[in-house]
Known about the structure:
Elements: H1 12-31, H2 35-53, H3 62-71, H4 73-98, H5 104-123, H6 133-157
Helix pairs in contact: 1-4, 1-5, 2-3, 4-5, 4-6, 5-6
Amino acid sequence: MNTNPRKSHKYKPTAYLILSILWMLLIFSFSAQPATESTKTSLRVGMTVGSVLVPDFSSMSEIDRTKYAESIEFPVRKTAHATEYAILGILLTATLSSFEKRHYGLWGWLLGTGYAATDEIHQLFVPGRSGQVTDVMLDSAGCLLGCLLLCTIYHLSKPRKL
């Protein structure tokens, strides 16, 4: 009986690979948004955060709600960066581990960091956007967190020898 959770199904490698590619395409689509569209998305998220976290947010004036959303736009954007790359790190690590790649966590992180760098280069060609080394660093940290999380789960799920 196969007790390794990473080898339990023959279609998992392909499924993880497809999910990784789809997630990379989603990241690419966010990065392809012109600055005005990206700002609108961040403000919508800020409004949602306000409606959940701020008491009486709905009774505030439209101007005050917008000011609140604008005041948290920077942390919203940076949290989005880290989160989307943490998910990518999980997907890349799952993909590589299902193909029985050695050091799958390290390779997942390196691939995710490489993708982050190319994504920032891509943004140089999008109206109103710029490529930021600090975003590559943040994306890389998010990716590392995702890789470490999945590696830890895999390690804890291994059967122990008595």
